[in-house]
Design goal:
It contains one helix and four strands, in the order H-E-E-E-E. It is of the alpha+beta class. The radius of gyration is 30 Å and the shape is rod-shaped.
């Protein structure tokens, strides 16, 4: 059995391997925060989108209710089913209609946190 003594080429290969490992570690250390940042911005953009959709739906429904459709509902709090097709783009949640003291209030509340937050609109009747 012959044992070879490492020569200059083996040392160069070892140094090259160490340099490659350090470069990969530096690249990984730089890309992980960037990937996390992109992921959190994506979640934030989705929450903003869902909040904007909820605001549009609530604003439209409140306008229709204030124009006279509120008379079809009894006073008190009750769940409200919006007619907007865009409600399919919202996360699970509920619309709550409250009619009391010459005031009409429509609120959307998501069931899951970090999905836009609640949206509330209130108008005076007559």
């Amino acid at each position: 059995m012959v044992i070879q003594i490492p020569g200059p080429s083996a040392r160069r290969r070892g140094a090259l391997l160490i340099e490659l490992l350090l470069a990969m570690a530096l690249l990984t250390g730089a890309l992980l925060p960037l990937a996390y940042s992109i992921s959190s911005e994506r979640r934030l953009a989705r929450a903003y989108y869902q909040r904007a959709v909820a605001m549009e739906i609530v604003d439209g429904e409140v306008e229709a209710l204030a124009a006279g459709q509120w008379r079809a509902f009894s006073p008190g709090s009750q769940e409200y089913q919006p007619r907007a097709a865009a409600a399919a783009n919202l996360p699970p949640g509920k619309f709550l209609l409250t009619i009391a003291d010459k005031k009409l209030r429509l609120q959307w509340t998501p069931s899951v946190k970090r999905h836009g937050g609640p949206v509330l609109r209130e108008v005076s009747l007559e």
